Amino acid sequence: MSDDLSWMLEDALQIPHALHAVLISADGLQMSRTAEFDRGDADKVAAAVSGLQSLSRAVSFFCGEHGANWRQTLIEFDGGWVFLNAAGGGSYLAVAASADVDMQDITYRMQQLVSRLGKAMSTGIRGDAVTS
């Protein structure tokens, strides 16, 4: 994707205790990341969460929903969380947060961001658009 969406991902860091955000393509490639997050680490995250999304879809039958649309995956670690959401157009949004994050706040605000990302990816960003 030629349009830089990193400025949109920076909005994810406005969520208290959010650490990083990465936008991932369906084939596991990093499309964009928040500015302070290392490119190499973002590439590793992209490949890993693409696999997690695929594994998550594979167990939809466990909920009695064979072939149901995947929406999100949540992973908890001792020190924090990884949120992975469908972002439209076959892309995914991954956000890392510390253990102190407000779960309701981050999931709500990620859905808002996903909606904006989906619109931007489907229409493209105008060359003369102001992004600051």
Key structural traits:
Beta-Lactamase; five-stranded antiparallel beta sheet; 34% helix; globular; disordered C terminus
Secondary structure elements and pairings:
Blueprint: H1 6-9, E1 18-24, E2 30-33, H2 39-58, E3 72-77, E4 80-88, E5 91-98, H3 103-123
Antiparallel strand pairs: 1-2, 1-5, 3-4, 4-5
Q: Provide the CATH superfamily.
A: Dynein light chain 2a, cytoplasmic
- Largest beta sheet: strand ordering: 2-1-5-4-3
CATH architecture: 2-Layer Sandwich
| N-to-C series of helices and strands | HEEHEEEH
For the CA atoms, what is the radius of gyration? 15 Å
Beta-strand fraction estimate: 25-35%
User: Helix proportion of residues, in percent?
Assistant: 25-40%
Shape field: globular
Q: What structural class do you assign from the helix and strand content?
A: alpha+beta
Can you walk through the features of this model?
The chain contains 3 helices and 5 strands; from the N terminus they run H-E-E-H-E-E-E-H. With 132 residues, it is an alpha+beta fold. The protein has a single domain (6-122), classed as Dynein light chain 2a, cytoplasmic (Beta-Lactamase, 2-Layer Sandwich), CATH 3.30.450. The protein has a 5-stranded antiparallel β-sheet. The two termini are 20 Å apart. The model is unreliable at 125-132 (pLDDT under 50).
Summarize the structure in short.
The chain is built from three helices and five strands; from the N terminus they run αββαβββα. The protein has 132 residues and is α+β, with helices and mostly antiparallel strands.
